[in-house]
Each structure stands twice: as structure tokens, then as C-alpha cells.
Specification:
Elements: H1 3-13, E1 16-17, E2 20-21, E3 28-31, H2 37-47, H3 57-66, E4 71-80, E5 86-97, E6 100-110, H4 119-133, E7 138-142, H5 145-148, E8 154-155, E9 161-162, E10 172-176, E11 186-189, H6 193-196
Parallel strand pairs: 6-7, 9-11
Antiparallel strand pairs: 1-2, 3-4, 4-5, 5-6, 5-11, 7-10, 8-10
Helix pairs in contact: 2-3
The structure holds coenzyme A (COA).
């Protein structure tokens, strides 16, 4: 392959982040397997570690979601490095807008040693692509709009979707997918374990 076509190919297949080539090409994204569960838990704990909490809330949430009917194995994805080590994880679980099915995204975790290299972005793009391919209509999350806006998330209120807690509004965002129906509006309900943590 010529240098030029090699450059063109890498521009096609690598994820650009703010105009530069991201290191995310160094990870592969795939579905989680049962053998990954312990490492996924460890990555989540490291990503959300706080000095005041031996076990982060997000790790407890992950544990609870795993045992819940809302867990969707096809939407629990890991990022693995060149050595096959899990360095990041994302999961989307069954949620609802009124009676209509929807997805709640999170936790999204990247091991601290691997952050800011595009791994989180690669996981997010993969999760959204998988959800779209599965004909899911929309994905909701709670997070910083400055980060999630780049993945097409907008304030959920723009689509008439209301958070379970009114104070969450500034951080409560939705990404609509191909199967989105604008008639689906109303109260958003996460999977039940979210209410327990
Ligand atoms: C948030 C997280 C998943 C992002 O993964 P990542 O691999 O570091 O992200 P990427 O490399 O794809 O993107 C990095 C960019 O996102 C921005 N970013 C990362 N986390 C952010 C956050 N919480 N808020 C705002 N921006 C954020 C960075 O500024 C960076 O932008 P830059 O490249 O212009 O400097 C990761 O930092 C993480 O696990 N954090 C701890 C857990 C967490 O907060 N999870 C999200 C809530 S569920």
C-alpha cells in the first residue's frame, strides 16, 4: 500500500478527536464476556474512585444492574488494549419514557491510566451504533453537556423528556436514534437499580 493510501486509510478508520488522530485506534471495542466481569468492576471502581468511599456508588450500581432484568448483554461493551486487557467499559440498560422502551446509559468508565486517549469516545460511538442497529429509539444519560454534546446528546427537555428528579435537568440529555418517534415524550424512568443507589 502506498504512503498516500495508507494515510487515507488511517484517516478513514481512526477516530479523529478535535482535529488530531486519537490513540483510540489502539483499543478494540467488543461485547463483554463473562470472563470480563471482574475486570470491568475493577475499571469502574478505579474510574470513579473517591478517597471517602471504598466502593464507589457507580460500582454498586453496576453490580445491581448486572442482576436486573434491565441488563442488556448486547449493550455491555468493553475496550481492550493491544494486550487484550480491559481498559474501559460502557453499558446501556432498559429504561422507559412513559410506557415506551428507551435506554439509560452508564456507567461509562475508562481506567485512569488510559483516560484522555479517545477510549471513552470509542466506547460511546460503539454503544450508540449498537443501540441504533438494535432499533432502540433513544439513549438518555446524566452528565456534563460539554463532554456528551460531541456525541449528539442534547438537553432531554428539547424532546419533551423529563428526568426523574427536576434538579437533574441541566445534565439530563438524550441522543435520538433512527427509530426515534417524536411522539414519545414524558417522564423518563431508569432501570430500577438506579433508584436504589
Ligand atoms: C469520562 C470518561 C469516560 C471519558 O473517557 P476518556 O477516554 O478519558 O475520554 P476521551 O479521551 O474520549 O475524551 C477526552 C475528552 O473528554 C473530555 N472529558 C473527559 N471527561 C469529561 C467530563 N467528565 N466532563 C467534561 N469533559 C470530559 C476531556 O476534556 C477530553 O477533551 P480534550 O481531548 O479536548 O481534552 C473517563 O474520563 C472516565 O472514566 N472518567 C471517570 C468516570 C466518569 O466520570 N464517567 C462518566 C460519567 S458516567
Amino acid at each position: 500500500m502506498s504512503r498516500r493510501s495508507l494515510a487515507r486509510a488511517s484517516a478513514l478508520f481512526r477516530l479523529p478527536v478535535r482535529g488530531r488522530v486519537a490513540d483510540s485506534a489502539d483499543v478494540l471495542i467488543r461485547r463483554e464476556t463473562p470472563a470480563d466481569a471482574a475486570t470491568v468492576r475493577e475499571v469502574t471502581s478505579r474510574a470513579f474512585a473517591r478517597p471517602d468511599r471504598p466502593v464507589p456508588v457507580e460500582t454498586v450500581l453496576l453490580d445491581e444492574l448486572r442482576g436486573d432484568p434491565a441488563w442488556l448483554p448486547a449493550l455491555s461493551l468493553v475496550a481492550v488494549d493491544a494486550g487484550g486487557v480491559v481498559v474501559g467499559h460502557v453499558v446501556a440498560t432498559r429504561a422507559h419514557v412513559g410506557p415506551a422502551p428507551a435506554l439509560g446509559l452508564g456507567p461509562l468508565s475508562v481506567h485512569p491510566d488510559h483516560q484522555r486517549r479517545g477510549v471513552g469516545s470509542a466506547l460511546m460511538h460503539a454503544a450508540l451504533g449498537a443501540a441504533d442497529a438494535l432499533d432502540e429509539p433513544l439513549v438518555v444519560l446524566l452528565g456534563d453537556p460539554a463532554y456528551y454534546g460531541r456525541f449528539g446528546f442534547v438537553p432531554a427537555a428539547e424532546h419533551g423528556i423529563e428526568p426523574p428528579v427536576a434538579d437533574w435537568r441541566p445534565y439530563f440529555q438524550v441522543r435520538t436514534l433512527s427509530a426515534y418517534d417524536p411522539g414519545v415524550r414524558g417522564a423518563f424512568a431508569y432501570a430500577e437499580p438506579f433508584a436504589r443507589v
